[in-house]
Amino acid sequence: MNFGDDVPAVAAADVPQDGYLLDVREQDEWDAGHAPTAVHIPMGQLGDRAGEVPRDREVYVICRSGARSAQVTVALNQAGWLARNVDGGMKGWVEAGRPMEGGGDGAPYVA
């Protein structure tokens, strides 16, 4: 899915270390591996949990490949947040050499 220029985006390498990183993947994807500082709110729960997302700072939204996070980015921006989609999602995160944790007994991976 390509949202083109309608979705503000940022490369995974450019997400600030202290940035608010919102991971919208499902629980099993999160459990397999995620960014250490990410906040996990699955896309399907965001409507009920939107109050947990800060409005006073930029929100960097990530999923597995960037499609779900692009949808969430558009919705957040339309509702008054300042959100950016992380290009390439967690796949791009790993390719950029950014840290991951999780994975239970094994090494973390992108599910």
Quick one: overall form? globular
Describe the sheet with the most strands: 5 strands, parallel
The unreliable regions are none
Indicate the radius of gyration in whole angstroms: 13 Å
What's the name of the CATH homologous superfamily?
A: Rhodanese-like domain
Strand proportion: 15-25%
Domain Rhodanese: 15-102
Protein name: Rhodanese-like domain-containing protein
InterPro entries: GlpE_sulfurtransferase (IPR050229), Rhodanese-like_dom (IPR001763), Rhodanese-like_dom_sf (IPR036873)
What is the secondary structure topology, with strand pairs?
Elements (H helix, E strand, L loop, with lengths): L8 E3 L8 E4 L3 H6 L6 E2 L5 H4 L9 E4 L4 H12 L4 E5 L1 H7 L16
Parallel strand pairs: 1-5, 2-3, 2-4, 4-5
Describe this structure in words.
This protein is of the alpha/beta class and 111 residues long. The protein has one domain (4-95): Rhodanese-like domain (Oxidized Rhodanese, domain 1), CATH 3.40.250. The chain is 26% helix and 16% strand. The chain contains four helices and five strands. It has helices spanning 27-32, 46-49, 67-78, 89-95, and strands at 9-11, 20-23, 39-40, 59-62, 83-87. It has a five-stranded parallel beta sheet with strand order 1-5-4-2-3. The chain is globular. The protein starts with 8 loop residues before the first strand and ends in a 16-residue tail after the last helix. The mean pLDDT is 94.
